[in-house]
């Protein structure tokens, strides 16, 4: 028996130079279709979207880059890159411009939220819709799992920095994937093994610790993000793993305060909701996109 794969969009991988960096990205779907830009979080990469991209690419052009410091994006040493969220957003904007993306919807997750929302602040006319999957923009959404990082913000000394290194280990990475998941054995282990392996590259641990420290600057931008929601009211889906210890459910509900077009959906899972609720998330995204375009 021959199984036809003609209806399954092929995902291709590419690199493009943007902001002096070789940005790795995954892409699928018709080049003339509306664009969905998927922005990953810590400690993952575009690999987290490996199963979602084909489901969305039947109707949309789906593009998922690896942020600097993550995945397979390469930052030349001569670039002397400073790892801050402002710079991650600057590089992502350069990536968007290199691909000539004039209008696109955003999928923001974890670190992808402060990066993507900076893009929205800078060029609001380009944003057609936003999917926030455990992508925070409110103080309400910060859970107790941030306490060790808060201590680092308040006292950025070597002891508090070193206390965070456990999060960069394989076990610390696995915990982020399985915490709050009803059946942890259902999580594909290659996801957290890949993340952990890439973080073990020379110098990468210091990059991650620098970003932990800089995350405090994202909180300073929350009022600007919220003002953007009030002014522009983009079609928005906040779809949330309700057992996420980092970004807790009140962060999802808070979107409704500023955007009457926000829909909120809770899922019985943890931080990496795509690993357990792929079909439900894909269906919800397609429904949002259908209403937004």
Note the main attributes of this structure:
single chain, 293 residues, alpha/beta, Rossmann fold, 8-stranded mixed β-sheet, 8 strands, disordered N terminus, epoxide hydrolase activity
What this model shows, in words?
The structure is a single chain. With 293 residues, the chain is of the alpha/beta class. It has one domain (12-145, 220-292): Alpha/Beta hydrolase fold, catalytic domain (Rossmann fold, 3-Layer(aba) Sandwich). It has helices at 52-56, 85-98, 112-122, 147-154, 158-162, 170-178, 189-199, 204-214, 216-232, 249-253, 255-258, 278-292; strands spanning 12-18, 21-28, 35-39, 61-65, 104-108, 127-133, 236-241, 262-267. Strands 1-2-4-3-5-6-7-8 form an 8-stranded mixed beta sheet, sandwiched between helices. Helix 3 links the parallel strand 5 (104-108) and strand 6.
Quick description:
By secondary structure, this protein is α/β, with parallel strands linked by helices. 39% of the residues lie in helices and 17% in strands.
Distance between the termini: 39 Å
Largest sheet: 8 strands, mixed
Report Rg. Answer: 18 Å
Q: Give the overall form.
A: globular
The mean pLDDT is 96
Q: What's the arrangement of strands in the largest beta sheet?
A: 1-2-4-3-5-6-7-8
Number of helices: 12
CATH top level class name: Alpha Beta
Structural class: alpha/beta
Examine the secondary-structure arrangement and name the CATH architecture. 3-Layer(aba) Sandwich
Under CATH, the topology can be stated as Rossmann fold
Q: Can you tell me the number of structural domains? A: 1
Beta content comes to 15-25%
| Topology order in helix (H) and strand (E) letters | EEEHEHEHEHHHHHHEHHEH
- Give the CATH H-level superfamily: Alpha/Beta hydrolase fold, catalytic domain
What's the helical proportion of residues? Answer: 25-40%
Overall strand count: 8
Low-confidence stretches: 1-5
């Amino acid at each position: 028996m021959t199984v036809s794969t003609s209806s399954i969009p092929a995902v291709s991988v590419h690199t493009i130079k943007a902001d002096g960096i070789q940005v790795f990205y995954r892409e699928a779907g018709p080049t003339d279709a509306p664009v969905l830009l998927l922005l990953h979080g810590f400690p993952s990469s575009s690999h987290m979207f490996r199963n979602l991209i084909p489901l969305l690419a039947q109707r949309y052009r789906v593009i998922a880059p690896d942020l600097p410091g993550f995945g397979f994006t390469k930052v030349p040493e001569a670039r002397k890159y400073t790892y801050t969220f402002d710079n991650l957003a600057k590089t992502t904007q350069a990536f968007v411009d290199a691909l000539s993306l004039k209008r696109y919807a955003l999928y923001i997750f974890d670190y992808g939220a402060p990066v993507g929302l900076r893009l929205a602040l800078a060029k609001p006319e380009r944003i057609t819709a936003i999917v926030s999957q455990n992508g925070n923009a409110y103080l309400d959404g910060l859970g107790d799992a941030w306490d060790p990082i808060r201590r680092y913000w308040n006292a950025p000394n070597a002891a508090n920095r070193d206390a965070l290194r456990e999060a960069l280990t394989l076990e610390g990475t696995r915990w982020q994937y399985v915490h709050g998941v009803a059946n942890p054995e259902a999580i594909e282990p290659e996801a957290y093994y890949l993340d952990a392996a890439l973080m073990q590259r020379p110098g990468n641990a210091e990059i991650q610790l620098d970003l932990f420290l800089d995350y405090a600057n994202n909180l300073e931008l929350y009022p600007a993000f919220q003002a953007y929601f009030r002014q522009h009211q983009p079609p928005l889906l906040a779809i949330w793993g309700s057992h996420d210890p980092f970004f807790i459910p009140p962060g999802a509900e808070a979107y409704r305060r500023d955007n009457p077009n926000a829909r909120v959906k809770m899922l019985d899972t943890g931080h990496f909701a795509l690993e357990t609720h792929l079909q439900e998330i894909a269906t919800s995204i397609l429904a949002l996109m259908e209403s937004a375009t």
